[in-house]
Amino acid sequence: MINLKGDWSALFLCVFQGTLKGFDQTINLILDESHERVFSSSQGVEQVVLGLYIVRGDNVAVIGEIDEETDSALDLGNIRAEPLNSVVH
Fold first, then answer.
1. DSSP code for 37
2. What does the domain layout of the chain look like in residue ranges?
3. Model confidence pLDDT, tens digit, residues 53-83
4. Burial environment of residue 29 by CB neighbours within 10 A (0 to 12, 13 to 18, 19 or more)
5. Alpha helical stretches, state H, 1-89
6. Whole-prediction pTM value?
7. Where, by residue number, does the polypeptide cross the bilayer (predicted)?
8. In angstroms, what CA-CA distances link 56 with 3, 18, 24, 30, 79?
9. Distance (Å, rounded) from C-alpha 74 to C-alpha 43?
10. What is the CB neighbour count within 10 angstroms for residue 31?
11. Is domain 18-78 classified as CATH 2.10.70.10?
């Protein structure tokens, strides 16, 4: 799903953004006009257009509201992100 350096065999990090159209008791989400932001330490943020998208609830960690004005002012081409460390259970 994401092409980042590091050991990602047991961990995938995806950032989805879109308009929340619906959800249910298990936090399954319906997103409209959605896209995935793929972060890299060597190049800018890549946005993959998804359109109407359903996310299974047990894969959801955080849901939040975005300030559209602030988000549109971001220069995604200059944003870099280092890979996360492994998750320790």
1. E
2. 18-78
3. 999 998 888 889 989 899 899 998 888 887 6
4. buried
5. 68-72
6. 0.69
7. none
8. 22, 15, 10, 9, 28
9. 15
10. 20
11. no
